[in-house]
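Protein Record: Sequence and Backbone Structure Tokens
======================================================

Structure line: whole-number tokens from a learned vocabulary of local backbone shapes, matched to residues.

Purpose: to set a sequence beside its fold so the mapping can be learned.

___
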Amino acid sequence: MADPTILRYLAKHYRDKIVCQPNMKVWELKKLIKDELDMYVGRSIVHRARAKILKDIIGDVHAEFKRLYDYRDILLQTDPGTTCVVKVEDQGEGKLVFNSFYVCFYAMKKGWSEGRRRIIGLDGCFLKGICKGQLLVAVSKDGNNQMFPIAWAIVEVENSFTWTWFLKCVTHDLELQDGRDLTIMSDMQKGLLKAVSEVLPESEHRWCSRHILANWSKDWRGLERRNNFWRCARASCVAELNFHLDSLNMLGNGICESLLRYNKETWYRAYFNCDRKYDIIDNNMCEKFNAWILASRHKTIITMLEEIRVKMMERIGKLREFADTWICDISPIAMKVYQDNMAQSMRCTIKWNGEYGYEVEDTSLRVVLKHCVNMQAQTYTCRSWMLKGIPCAHAIVVMHFKNLDPINYISH
């Protein structure tokens, strides 16, 4: 018979490990005990200790699922304006089975609506612990170009039905209507593409370039090809894009044709809508959020939701304090981009046509490019200023020529 004291000690000491890795093998746990405690424990004792931990965890899981309605009610009572939805399926004879859980806090609704950064990233990730399923998230960007989580939901599987339900909830909370004047960023998951086209048909839907690169590079490997891929994706105008495509075409027969199979308007910066003032080409905001809550994704359902809520509450407080340290109305990240563009403008030369047109020659890239700037019509062939909302090097040169202060032309 195993010593009950040893069993209780092992169960208490390694509970968190098993919660995070419920599929850990007995031999793995036995090796862990040997390495950490320098103690030999028989296989049967390790097996019983692991079984005891799992029994306790499963009991906690069942108890937490039963309390989801109570958790929802507490959220709605303590934070008026929050949306919280619990969906269950009736299995007959009064037996209810969990289906999905959605939450969007009032602070996130208000922050997004007042900030009006009209871009939303969508992504799904697996839950890592004893609770199985997937977490769907909607994340935007704040004025300082940092992630701004909006809403999240726990579902059984990631498919067209669950994405449609999640998007309808987000659309209702943020009053998105048909998605006009909105940009959606996501990967190319078929269920998600269908859901976006149904719920937000008028939105601009961009695809994550990292996801495209992962698929495309299966047939076209190599660092030089990868670097050329990013030059193509980041090109802000068609002329620059065509130059990089010509360079890429020299690295393999049919390499450009395979890349152009992806809808060019969804991931080439040169074809993005300029009204959003955001030139993002990847979905890093969602990836950062998923990594930020990685430890929480190993926990039981209410524990996970509570940890995410607390992390969001603390983050909002810290960001408010951070905003009070700004020395002007322009965010630090925007100011850094502006200063970088100012430095780049020193390597540009300008020619004036005598009226409103200017020709700017940029020598800071691998190739000398010429861009036309018309200050009266507010048109710029490089499109960088129109895409980002921060004057580019070419526009800054023209403004200095006209004795204008470029900092006054940063988009609100």
User: Anything to note?
Assistant: DSSP finds 18 helices and eleven strands in the chain. The two ends are 72 Å apart (CA to CA). The longest helix spans residues 43-66. The CA atoms of residues 335 and 385 lie 14 Å apart.
